[in-house]
Amino acid sequence: MSMLNETHDPALRSWVDSAQREGTDFPIQNLPFASFRRRGRGEGWRGGVAIGDAIVDLAALHRVHPFEGQAAEALAVAAEPQLNALMALGPAHWSALRLALSRALRTGSPLRALVEPCLLPQSEAEYGLPARIGDYTDFYTSIHHATNIGRLFRPDQPLLPNYKWVPIGYHGRSSSVGVSPQRFHRPCGQIKTPDAAAPVLAPSRRLDIELELGVFIGPGNALGEPIPVAEAESHVFGLVLLNDWSARDIQAWEYQPLGPFLAKNFATTVSPWVVTLEALAPYRVPFERPADDPPPLPYLDDAARRDRAAFDIQLTIGWQTAQMHAHGQPEHVVAQTNYRYAYWAVAQMVAHHTVNGCNLQPGDLLGTGTLSGPEPHQAAAFIELTAGGKQPLTLPSGEQRTFLEDGDTVVLRGWCQAPGWARIGFGECRGTVLPARAPAV
Amino acid sequence: MSMLNETHDPALRSWVDSAQREGTDFPIQNLPFASFRRRGRGEGWRGGVAIGDAIVDLAALHRVHPFEGQAAEALAVAAEPQLNALMALGPAHWSALRLALSRALRTGSPLRALVEPCLLPQSEAEYGLPARIGDYTDFYTSIHHATNIGRLFRPDQPLLPNYKWVPIGYHGRSSSVGVSPQRFHRPCGQIKTPDAAAPVLAPSRRLDIELELGVFIGPGNALGEPIPVAEAESHVFGLVLLNDWSARDIQAWEYQPLGPFLAKNFATTVSPWVVTLEALAPYRVPFERPADDPPPLPYLDDAARRDRAAFDIQLTIGWQTAQMHAHGQPEHVVAQTNYRYAYWAVAQMVAHHTVNGCNLQPGDLLGTGTLSGPEPHQAAAFIELTAGGKQPLTLPSGEQRTFLEDGDTVVLRGWCQAPGWARIGFGECRGTVLPARAPAV
Question: PANTHER family attached here (chains A, B) (predicted)?
């Protein structure tokens, strides 16, 4: 399902002019899915597909019944308020709908007259979560992040002995996952400074981000029935950007022995557009596992895909203070990284998660973990970029930052681009920190 | 809402004879809720209330419209397939429905002729999960368990410095929570023995249990709005028994640095009947926090309830091997403990979970963590009862056990009993281990 086909042809053009605009995230080769409605009209949520600056309203399209067979079946459920039922259908249906949409949106399509009335401008839209997220699991797939963070917490043993064997993951909180643009209050929590005798309840002073990708699960598995790694990608609908906001001071005091909890579960932001694995097919690249590292255990070794298990997705972190916003200055890119540096692949996350029989469900969300690369400017969390808060960043406004101040906005972006192929973008994942509320006592 | 009222009167009698049977878990003073249907009839799920050996079918009762006001409003949603909407209504509605049911089921009730046709025998029923569980969080509220386990993993520092300050918790997996009786396959996972150079994928050899209580959340809170500890219990619908099955060998290798993951998420079993906090009111007892321990931080200190924040709930773990089952031998009680030994109260779990703004939703599940008491026979996990697998238990069949063998069944039971009050029981929480499946490779 993730092989190249006519939908990837870089020569394709759409009758939607903005789909040809230089630098658009949403050319006709992308066609990502979201849940949306027009702002301020009391409308219901429904599925949409991005094309240039527009959205194809899939509920409206479904009403004119333009497709047949699996594409029509997929369109019927893609029109629903959230995409769980579409995700549950599986790759054959996803591909059929993608192909039908690609053909309908091409220059010269005989369906143009049917489809054009179903277009809405993205500027009028607001987005919902793409799916009802049953469970959210966060992985830890960047060996560079694991090493950088480990060095801060355990200088003598930055990388734990299990890292190169186990795709480390843990359960996150699904109720507080929100969609971009998300605004949330700075969390309060127990904080104990090293020299204090006791902790205090206070607003976090070390509020951080983690740049990740999110993975939306397609068809699930029954409890007790593992998903083999060779089949794992057929259980993946697509990817989004994900910001795993993290309160480092709360984390440092609470995380032993059972892992992060309140340091993470106050907010997690995802981008609205789910980019399908099929759209990413031209950007598959080999994993670069050092030759002297242990090979993955057989249940994690997808031999047929070793040369294309990773994705060349460029990722940036932008920082905009309230002052920059007031002066019309856009966010400033403070880090650039790439998903290809991850140590564990999407298929390995799925196979590992289910090897004990744990059941995944359509719409479940997996996070990749912080996607830091090997170079210092590729660190994907501020705690890494600022050496644990010791080396402030200077922004174009002249302001300095280690961790987030109230009013700061963080914008994550992601895209694939390479000569000979269409750019495939993720849009943006934006979040703003509001002041802490007075603790409830 | 959790004060004593006429529903707690130990002199109450029901026209359902079995509700007076010596030792019943479900006298008229209890009235716990479940989701049920009759087995093998293709019926839909609906809410039910236990009375003696019977179930009041709340969907059938709703159709005859016996109640008015808040009781009728609560009954209308209690008739639904799962109890989320009832949980969302809050304590005033729960109490009104409980009072109306108590009066309707009493000897001499004029409603008997209306209600009696709505009774079904429990022997014909099967149970569903009481609620759609959005998120499941597992706490660690027994200081005795934390110390016992800590001694096995960290002999030099059994209890971590944060324990007496932070109600430690972490996110669990909601998709694999099932209802008693649950049968599941022994999980496979990465296991690395201390003398091995590398891990292998194999069935767990150290499959364990954890006896806990589960807490079903009632009305939730909006993201960003903490629940004050003094209001926390009004967000709690009731309690169930919970078995947090745990693969200790998988856990030992995977759990650093982000906590348990595949060691826990293959299955979690809850008992079907949710016992309301109101039913437990006669069994409130003070917390016994040692005088030289630090007092809870203000956001965790419910001063008005300090003398009744704990519950005197007796708990047992029963073990039945396949051989015992074949010979008609019931499960053998290998440990007895009590919820009163917990270090953190239900209200403290809720207040802590939300102090950072994290949102709880109706039907969310909190686990108390393993409820070990101070004495060796009060250990609530086999790893504690058998000194890390070094001291086998001998069962009445002559068989020895450290961890679970295939075909073993574990039965958790819980009840409150004290002179002058009616017994309030939880029923049972039963689970059976099936053989591992061949790993998917």
Answer: FUMARYLACETOACETASE (PTHR43069)
Looking at A228-383, which runs of residues are DSSP E strands? 236-243, 246-247, 268-270, 275-276, 284-285, 310-311, 314-320, 332-338, 365-367
Q: Do A178 and B223 touch (CB under 8 A)?
A: yes
Annotation: binding site of B for Ca(2+): 138, 210, 212, 244
Nearest to A98 by CA among A52, A60, A56, A38: A56
Encode pLDDT of A139-177 as tens digits: 999 999 999 988 887 888 899 999 999 999 999 999 999
Residues A201, A346: one domain?
yes
**Residue at A440 is within a domain:** no
Q: Residue A441 pLDDT > 80, yes or no?
A: no
pLDDT given for residue A218 in this prediction? 98
Based on the domain organization, do B61 and B151 belong to the same domain?
no
CB-based contact A441 B299, cutoff 8 Å: yes
- Residues A176 and A65 grouped into a single domain: no
Q: For chains A and B, what is the number of CB pairs under 8 angstroms?
A: 229
- Residues from chain A that touch B299, judged by Cβ atoms under 8 A, are 201, 439-441
Which residue bears the tokens 């403290």?
Answer: B348
Q: Are residues A43 and A150 in the same domain?
A: no
- Catalytic hit among A62, A144, A145, A332: A145
Partner-chain residue, chosen from A165, A247, A258, that has the shortest CB–CB distance to B190: A165
* Percent of chain A with pLDDT strictly greater than 70: 99
Per-residue model confidence (pLDDT) at position A155: 86
Q: Is the ipTM of this complex over 0.90?
A: yes
Structure tokens that stand for A213 in this block = 């990708």
Summarised one tens digit per residue, pLDDT across range B260-315 is 999 999 999 999 999 999 999 999 999 888 999 999 999 999 988 888 999 999 99
From B128, B160, B191, give the residue that closes a domain: B128
Q: Which of A89, A382, A42 is nearest to A217 (CA)?
A: A89
Rounded Cα distance between A134 and A113, Å, is 39
Question: Which residues of B are less than 8 Å from A349 in CB distance?
Answer: none
Which residues of chain A neighbour B168 with C-beta distances below 8 Å? 254, 257-258, 261
Answer whether residue B57 shows pLDDT above 50: yes
CATH of the domain at B40: 2.30.30.230
Mean pLDDT of chain B: 96
Residue that is last in its domain, among A128, A144, A169: A128
Q: Which of B173, B190, B223 sits opposite A358 (nearest CB)?
A: B173
Q: What residues of B are in contact with residue A173 (Cβ under 8 Å)?
A: 135, 171, 358
Same domain? For A162 and A103 the reply is no
Residue B85 counted as domain residue: yes
Tokens of B4: 């004593």
Co-location of A185 and A224 in the same domain: yes
Kindly state the tokens that stand for B121. 């025998």
Residue type, B131: A
Q: What is the CATH number of the domain that holds B372?
A: 3.90.850.10
Contact A175 B223 (CB under 8 A): yes
Give the structural domain span for B47.
6-128
Whether B353 is catalytic is no
Residues B233 and B314 in one domain: yes
Q: Count structural domains, chain B.
A: 2
Structure tokens at B122: 């429990």
Tokens in use for B216? 């079903």
The closest alpha carbon to A243, from A260, A264, A222, belongs to A264
